[in-house]
Amino acid sequence: MKLPHPFLLIAFSILSFGLPAEALEIRTWTSLSGKSIEAEYVRADGDKIVLKDKDGRELVVKRAELSQGDLRYIEEVAPKSGAPLLGEKPVKPGVTPNPAKEAKIDQKTFKPRTDRFKLPESSYNILETPHFLIMYPDKIEAADLGETAERVWLDMTFFHPGFSQKFKDRKMAVFLVEQEYDYEKIGKWYADMIRKSGQPNADRAADGLMATWKPAASANLQMTQEVADEYGVLRYARVFRTSTGSGSAKREKVKGVFVPFRVHCLAQDMMNIHTGGVASFGAKGLFAIETGHAYFKEILITGRSETGMLREAGSGHEVSTTGGFDSNKNWADELKKLLRRDKVKPSILELYNTNLASAKPEMNVLAYSFSRYLQSNTDRMAKYAELLEKIDKRSEIPEPEDLAKIYGFADVASMQADWIAYLNSSSFK
Questions:
Q1: CB neighbours of 160 closer than 8 A, spacing ≥ 6?
Q2: CA 181 → CA 32, 178, 249, 398, 429, distances in Å?
Q3: CA 52-53-56 angle, 5° bins
Q4: What pTM, to 2 d.p., does this model score?
């Protein structure tokens, strides 16, 4: 059977407003251009922010150059500063900033390391970027993937004040694997770790992993703490194939920085790292929030979607795939047409009850549209940051009623009506 998508994956002192009473944390500050520094907040001087680096030197940056996450942090530690979210460059209603696309990232700053990343029976070259270790085989270029990862990291950092701290002492490992044998070998290594974990249903989980691993173009994995400590990386890691297609299908090399599928995967990774994942008891709504976010960032950053998701179906480990509309360049137009014909009825409760196993193209697109709605302007972005913070603290997705309250609605019905109005507006296009 021909798959509908070319990519598959498994289911970021003058006029002072007051000096904080206590010394504040050293944190990462990020600009829209992609530059970042480690410093402590000191004070706000008009349209300038004074920071202090690790050596005690004061640094002055323009308020308008800082990320939304940084400015939101300033509001938390110095609420009387009156800092607008985007300083001198307010965003128009309905417009979401796109730092991942606009940032200037120089691949020449990436450093090939002399050591190698060793796994059982194999080892890889290492390309070090500010926040990632890209592992790759000989004769393969890894810089584009490194830039993609940095751009998606910047996107999450720009909007969420606490995210960069997750990378304070660690980088994320990303593997770029060319040969199918090497890709399967990593999968088997991961499956063996699951089997040896002692967790309930470990064997079934490992079997399910291998059922979807082989036909997939990418997968995430959890490395052992020992390996993570050895290389200074997070346990959460990602594996990409260098080409698409599987089995007898024609293989095509993946090239470029703005690759939709890779952006989708990495956007999902950044959210998982930021929220710490969710417990099984709090997974209701995960599809609506996580899958929708990944599709939203994929389309926002690259202009299209090319991602289908593999899923295990049934106890026999059969595999199927699901994605969005075939017209991948403009899901908004097609969704609007379906809304006008009353063939799709957006429902927050139905979206919350959807998961990867039951998802259909219409639900994938609705999840995308819902995430886009939740992040469609600066006020909603602030609410979205609050949403992810709650997931991080509770390890569960807030119930629809709680989500509505976060966004200032009296009930789910009111929020749903506002979402539908957004879908029918000129802002959704």
A1: 69, 274, 385, 388
A2: 40, 9, 16, 41, 43
A3: 75
A4: 0.82
